[in-house]
Amino acid sequence: MQFNYQASTKRGKIKTGLIFAGSEFEAKKALEAKNLLVINIKPIKTSRLNFFIIKRAREMNPPAGGFISERALISKGLIPFIFPWRLQALDLLVLTKNLSILIKSGLTLVESLETIAEQSTGRLKRLISNISERVKTGVSLATVLEEQKCFPPLYVNLIRSGESSGTLEENLNYLLDQLDNDYQMKKKLGLMMVYPLIVLSLSFIVGLGMAIFVLPKIATVFVGLKVELPLPTRILLAIADLFKNYSWQIVSGIFLTIIAVSVVLKQSFIKPLTHRLILSLPVIGIISRDLNLARAFRTLGTLLKSGLTIDRGLEIASKVAPNYLYQKALSEITPQIIKGQPLAKELELKEKLFPKMATKSLGAAEKSGSLESTLFFLARFYEQEVEGRLKSLSTWIEVGLLLIIGLVVLTLAVSILLPIYQITGEISKV
Q: 156-430 has which fold?
């Protein structure tokens, strides 16, 4: 076993590091034998353990009950823990695809993992090497993936189901379909919003540039004329004066506000409020609802197809639903499903989240024994609904942005030209 320790010397100097021992008692005895007073010692759980790091640490040949100081670990380029990280969607998709192809071609699981590790680079290479080393020792792939803390619950459970039932190759194909569908959906969402975001960003940058560099110069010209200016021009001059005196404070405030809002929105305590607000919005709320329904139905269908029970499927589906309210709803109905209640009947009680069309279809599917195919049908239906609404929303956003830009340009033109015409009229009278 491995333990992370914190101890003090007789002179009061604090030392930390890694120790190998058969038990916590033995670890404490080993530290005390080195005249160290143990302050804190705790086992490094396998789920938090970087197997590669521990393997390298063992190669430093510590004696039984021996320990390695933190300084020594750092000097060797090692640290006691691996910090959990989440694989990118594309990396996970490529990893699954390669693993599926290699296993289908006749290679063993370890050989497949080693081949993928050789073709990978950076942190992904180290991760797959760690997984391969652990699988070699006889640990199941699902257990190793769960230890790494960077694979989603859906992935781990489908692998576990495949290993226990001898259908790993089939379950990898199910995973591949699920991951590919999720990736394509995210890609479409991103592409549809690229143009509006570019236009909005450029408009913001141009407007900010004009407010900081152009408007103050125009303001100087108008102020020097010493004539009564029209209201639009006076408002423009006030804005120009504000940016002239506090430009960097305003810019810094805008960026700090964006960062602060982003950080707050990611906090778990605010999600019930924000997710409820999103669902209540006119158009975005419908898109969010359909997106959550598509994700939940496809995930549940994939899990049932792989051989998992419906209650276990609902438990996992509740964790992958993007919206907090859907996560809560699916978690709440799971105990009732375990008691034998029909899925459709329980979903009908959540009518604000699950439309009648979906619940009626699921009710009929449960009676006819075609629940899996109906879940996939509903998932495709809601995915198509999301795509259609996103296209419409993207078009309306583009039109709205063009109107806003046109309005801003018109306001600037009126504010600048009105005083010029006014001055020209005064001169012509003279």
A: Receptor-associated Protein (1.20.81)
